[in-house]
C-alpha cells in the first residue's frame, strides 16, 4: 500500500528586527484580496506602538487552531494543502470569538463587511513575503513548516512583542521607549 505524503505547508517567517515599517506587505495583501490599496482590509498589519519599532502581525497557523475550534458557525477551516485558516465570508457572522480565541488576536473584522479577515497565505505563495524579500528587507520570508519549530511561539500580539523588540533594537534606551 502506497502512503500518501502531504505537501510541505507554507509558513511566513518573521524577523521583527528587520521590519522597516514600510507597509508594502499591507499594500500587496490588500491589492491581492480587495483589488485595491486598502491597508485596513489587509490580512497582514504592521503596528508601531513605540516609535521606530514596527511589528508585522499575521496568522501563525497555530498547532491547534483555537480560532477554528471557537467558531460557532464553522465559518473557519484549515486548508489541508497550505495549513492556512480560510474564512467562509457568507457563513461568518463576525461574532469575534475567533479573535479572542487567537493567542495573538490576529483575526480582525473587515472594515466594511460583516466577516473576519485572516491570512490565507495567498494559496501558498504569500504576497507579503514576496514583496518584503524583493525590497530586501526580509522581515517576512516565505518558509516551510518544520516539526523542529514551535510556531505557537509566534502567536503573540504586538503589545507582547514590542518591549523585547525595542530593547533588541535600542539596548537600554529601548526600555525607556516602552
Summarize the structure.
It is built from six helices and eight strands. The protein is an alpha+beta fold. It has one domain: Alpha-Beta Plaits (2-Layer Sandwich), CATH 3.30.70.20.
Describe it:
- The protein is α+β, with helices and mostly antiparallel strands and 178 residues long.
- The chain has one domain (10-177): Alpha-Beta Plaits, CATH 3.30.70.
- 27% of the residues lie in helices and 17% in strands.
- It is built from 6 helices and 8 strands, in the order E-H-E-E-H-E-E-H-E-E-H-E-H-H.
- The strands form 4 sheets. A two-stranded antiparallel ribbon has the order 1-8.
- Strand 4 (76-78) and strand 5 form a beta hairpin.
- Helix 1 packs antiparallel against helix 4.
- The radius of gyration is 16 Å and the shape is globular.
Ordered list of secondary-structure elements with their pairings:
Blueprint (H helix, E strand, L loop, with lengths): L9 E5 L9 H11 L10 E6 L2 E5 L8 H5 L5 E3 L6 E3 L9 H5 L6 E2 L6 E2 L9 H8 L5 E5 L13 H13 L1 H6 L1
Antiparallel strand pairs: 1-8, 2-3, 4-5, 6-7
Helix pairs in contact: 1-4
Describe this protein with a few key phrases.
178 residues, alpha+beta, two-stranded antiparallel ribbon, two-stranded antiparallel sheet, 6 helices, 27% helix, globular
